[in-house]
Amino acid sequence: VMSQKIAYYIIMRGLAGCMPDSLDVARYETRAAMVKHINSEIDLNSWPLRARRQINTVDIWKYIQGGGKRANFVIRQSSYQLEFVQIDYREYMERIRESEYS
Cβ contacts of residue 59 below 8 Å, gap of 6+? Predict the structure, then answer.
């Protein structure tokens, strides 16, 4: 089995068009891990699970495994949104280090 490419993301939460209320980074080693985290974000906001149907994680994961670097996506519920922006390993590590000092 070939090893899968790891996906790194910044996740921003907040009102569409405004500065995010919060910002985190995430690292996904498998599509299942990505789906589990997306579902937990949806649950945290008490959104209906159908909100997840706004994105196709199979296609997103295939794109990442093919070397895609811009697998960005947004899940919206009324005016609130979760924005997932793909980043590289270096930026992921920079943000992890920053968060340790803040």
Answer: none
Report pLDDT digits (tens) over 39-74. Answer: 999 999 999 988 999 999 999 999 999 999 999 999
Determine the Cα–Cα distance for residues 16 and 81; give it in Å rounded to an integer.
Answer: 6
**C-alpha neighbours within 13 Å on the C-beta side of residue 42:** 19
Q: Is 84 exposed, middle or buried (0-12, 13-18, 19+ CB in 10 A)?
A: buried
- DSSP annotation of 60 reads H
Q: Is the pTM of this model over 0.85?
A: yes
The stretch 87-92 carries a mean pLDDT of 97
Positive or negative torsion for Cα 59, 4, 8, 12: positive
